[in-house]
Amino acid sequence: MARQQLDSAGRFFASIRRMFPLRDRYILHHLLLGLAALTGGATALIWLTQSLHFIGMIVQHGLSLLAFLHLTLLMLPSFVSVILPVTCFLVILWFYQRLAGDRELTILQATGLSPLRLARPGLVCAGLATLIGYGLSLWGAPLAYHHFHRYELEIRNRAAAFLLEEGVFTPVSRDMTVYIRERHSDDSFGGIMIEDNRVPENPVTILAEDGLTEPHGDVLRLILHNGSRQTLNRRTGELSTLLFRLETLDFGSPHDQTLSPDVAELTMRQLFHPQGDLPAHAHNKLLIEGWTRLTGPLACLSYGMIGLLCVLRGRFSRHGTIIRPTMAVLSVVGLMILSLMLKNLAERNPALVPLLWLEVLLPIIVGGGIFLRDAARTYSLSPASTPFRQPPAQ
């Protein structure tokens, strides 16, 4: 059994070698390494700049370095899914341009290889980047952002417990104020008074001998012992009093944040089939977000095709080393601007959704057609390189 598995593995690797000769493996190896290095460096730079926004929250609330890393690292899948098409394009353009500058492409073309054969490693690299982009766009980024949103809200809700100071009336929300007489070493409180105006018609005043706080889901729960709950009915002026031994009260952060799901953390099913009656603009926004997740990863293949076309099409020129890369960069920048414009327009008019697909598929279709047309031609050695044959003797 083990021998059969080894034989099957050997045949598999042999088929891979036949499918990808040494030159293709050499190009693909450098492309993948460059893609990983450039994407990792760009992601680290963006992560560093974005994480600075959370420094204040971490310092003010006294959170650990591990909590800071946990919070900020959850943003990485979203960063990678956004910058992956650009880094894929830059790596393909840079490496193939380097091959052209070193005359390696000229030598390979002189051996009879068509532009499609030369572009195959770049297309494989762009295809792998597209698959990774779909994994991040459809699953990784929404899931990571969902955990990021919950963890950020949990940190802010925990901060309410740290803001409770002795002898100070602390507003924990817009409609609730908490006063504690003393704070113990185990983070429990003594002498608690709470003014709860979340229901304006029936304000509540709570007095308790002691209590403590603990996280409960997405809110902070205050557990009170041995106290009274006084409720005033503003219509009748009646005051009712309830004595308790144990009472729980949930409240959020001082910013009064609630766990409302963001568009970036919704699943594809929630985007295309939202629950409840939504305004037309909100419904269109969800639909366009779903279509953007489906079309966005194809930009890796689309931008990569532009880079390959600009390098492999045409003869080597001393001035082409500057003109063609510049044209490729300007084309990709134009497509990115066009994508943003179409997304904004489609949110107002969903009938423009097909233009989102056309914008990413058109470079792929045009580039593929050009490469297939060139591959259909006969590539052979030039007459100067063919061996001289003497005419047969008569």
Automatic annotation (TrEMBL):
Topology in the lipid bilayer: Multi-pass membrane protein
Transmembrane segment boundaries: 26-48, 68-96, 123-145, 294-314, 326-346, 352-372
Domain of life: Bacteria
Keywords from the named record: Cell membrane, Membrane, Transmembrane, Transmembrane helix
Membrane keyword on record: yes
Main location group: membrane
Annotated localization: Cell membrane
Record carries keyword Cell membrane: yes
The name this protein goes by in its record: LptF/LptG family permease
Species annotation: Bombella dulcis
